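Thread: 6-chloroguanine complex, take 2
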Amino acid sequence: MKFHVLTLFPQMIMDALNTSITGRAIDKGILSVNAVDIRDYTHDKHLKVDDYPYGGGAGMVMQPGPVVECYENIVTKGTKPRVVYMTPQGETFSQAKAKELAQEEELVILCGHYEGIDERALEEIVTDYISIGDYVLTGGELAAMVVIDSISRLVPGVLNNDVSAETESFSDGLLEYPQYTRPVEFRGKKVPEVLLSGHHAKIDEWRHEKSLERTKRFRPDLYEAYLKDHPEERKN
Ligand code: 6GU
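Output below.
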């Protein structure tokens, strides 16, 4: 899968994604990340890419020319890859959206800065508007990395272990159960006995119970949705 990231801070993207699991997938050729500097497409002699908003107001707005020319330069003629604009005004990102986007062969991700990008550039090229949650970041780059990371781990071959992408949180609508490793006792706390028993049915049952407890406590919204689909598991 190939990601093109249109940004004023390409180094931020490259440094983060060349690390750890995504870095290894890039080395293996399963992923590719092409971060492109929008500033390379300005025609301004001072390399300016933003200006004051028409109508007044605080901050600066990214001008449409460099953004659209940057897009036109990276996209292969005759292809129409989806273009995701990272913005707090977008639809909230989810595991379902990650799965949908992981089906694409090539994705363009556009990161804004300042007060955003001139609407005409967005109308010209953007197909999907994505937010990563209800809080405001200084720019789209961190959000783009979140989106790229979550899509990447769904691409076959990126994780060592292809079952884990499916068994983790959200695949069944519940949060993950707690995990333990050696030592068997740490500062007076023992690993739950059932996990040492070798009794796989009992272990599965215990883990499911812990998933339910945790989901009820931290994500009552998910817990209610789960019980709607599994009414036989409602206890009262
Ligand atoms: Cl995608 N961008 C910015 N700037 N802030 C955000 C966001 C995106 N998602 C949540 N906050």
